[in-house]
Amino acid sequence: MESDLRVNEDGELRGTVSNNGPVSAHTVVVQYTGENQNVLPIERSAAVGTLDTGESENFTLPIAIGGEAEAGLRSLDLTVQYRNDDGEIRADENLAVNVEVAPERDRFTVAIENRTIAAGGTRTVDVAVTNNMDEPASDIEARLFADDPLATGNTDTGYVQSLDPGETTTMTFELTTTGSATPGSTYPISLDFRYDDADGDSQLTDTSRVPIDVVESEDGGLPLPIIIIALLVIGTAGLVIYRRGQ
């Protein structure tokens, strides 16, 4: 028995059914009969056909695993139903099979080569986006989110027509910092993706977070709030000196 079942994804349960009895089995059907709320059969049965004595045949059951499921070894209940030579229905019930359910994964992985931004500055951020699924994705729209002291600029969305499994594209966004950004600190930005899956259904991913490091401005100037405070102090001192001179 094999499977590619994974938390919060569609998958397949694949196996082989064999006729070890003394007579032929007709219209053989493998059925999923479990009641686990986190195991969601896309189709509850798979037709196998007729199996003569000693014959075997492969079957595939499409099954989805819910987002609340836990990864690990799971037991699934199956039933094999068939008709004998007299047309009577027979069934082998309560056939428990053990399968491994893989943990949930990000639908898209993101990577930023240069994760720094100068305090008080603005820059474009190139994000490498990879399709981490086992199926193609199309009409992919990414959106960038940032909270103070980071902010998105004029370009906070990216788009690519399609990505095959494992394929990577680069999306470019604009990122800026406000005056309260502290050099040496790290702040998160977030991205989510809306896309169409292989069945044409629209999907929205969970949010991916990427750290951004704020560094000193290369021009060596003081941050804007410090400059304003310094000007106010100088202006006040000049006023006091002027009044004393009177």
Give your account of this protein's structure.
The chain is mostly beta strands and 246 residues long. It contains one helix and 18 strands. It has one helix at residues 224-245, and strands spanning 2-3, 9-18, 25-32, 39-41, 45-51, 56-65, 72-83, 89-101, 108-112, 116-118, 122-131, 137-146, 150-152, 157-163, 168-177, 186-196, 202-204, 208-215. Strands 10, 12, 14, 16, 17 and 18 form a six-stranded mixed beta sheet that branches. The chain has a four-stranded antiparallel beta sheet with strand order 1-2-6-4, with no helix packed on it. Strands 5-3-7-8 form a four-stranded antiparallel beta sheet, with no helix packed on it. The radius of gyration is 30 Å and the shape is elongated. Residues 1-20 are annotated as: Disordered. Keywords: Membrane, Transmembrane, Transmembrane helix.
